[in-house]
Amino acid sequence: MTPAAAALGIGTATFLANYGLPSEGSDPAEARLVPRDDLLRAALSGGVRYLDTAADYGDGELEVGRVLADGVRVCTKIAPGGSIDLVRASVERLGAAPDTILIHSAVREHMRSAPAIDALREARACGLARRIGVSTYGIEDAAFGLAQPWVDVVQIEYSILNQSTLRATEYARSDQEVVVRSVLCKGLLTSRRTAAPRLAAQVQDALDGIEQCAREWDHSVEALAIRFALDTPGIDIVLVGVSSRAELGTALSAAAAPRLTHEQWHRLAAFDRRDADAAHPERWALLS
Description:
Layout: E1 7-11, H1 28-31, H2 36-45, E2 50-52, H3 60-67, E3 73-78, H4 84-94, E4 100-103, H5 108-113, H6 115-125, E5 131-135, H7 139-146, E6 153-157, E7 177-181, H8 197-202, H9 204-216, H10 221-230, E8 237-241, H11 245-256, H12 262-269, H13 284-287
Parallel strand pairs: 1-2, 1-8, 2-3, 3-4, 4-5, 5-6, 6-7, 7-8
Helix pairs in contact: 2-3, 4-6, 10-11
């Protein structure tokens, strides 16, 4: 039996100024004028039922809270040093208890003894969250998170260019959820890559190959990258950050498109460039 496709979620990290690669010639001040509430409402009208935010995403929790509706799951995140008081502050900004609360950018040490672990356990026990877990980078920390008995959800980075964390999903229990982010590699798998020619050059052969597939299959590169993640076994939720109606439209269209065939998925999987620093946005600051 073919595994069910993952569900599309919308992330709000893109609401922050200077997140990811800029559009060519874009003005950061103009980006902050995006009607975010309207964008989130349009996502919900388009069938999205999962929104991702964090305590340190500016006004992200407040903005998500203003559009919440029945049946919409919300994930938020707190720092490893967080407390139950910070959890309650997130709940207050959201206006309701979220479905999921994660430790943000968790590493192995955080998953052993961080104050936030006790806070999340207490939050789950008293009904301030249904699920708790960690948001990680890299396969080692993702696998370690999935091995923790208290972890319900692990959020990991994943894209055509960096499929390294996929192996961590082999460690997931049947009752655990795997959420992926950075499926557009923070803009490298979009037209925004023209703003970072040095990064693009590191993986140019893969980008050229993905563009060829997109032309052959009548997709945009962006839509193909999203569809690839949605059709990857072992993934439950695919987060896509959007900052415009056009970007939201691409995400919704990708989610509504037919599933990739086995051959198409494997052809794209061959463009994994996990050994290139450009495929890991968390390393970009070190390359400048």
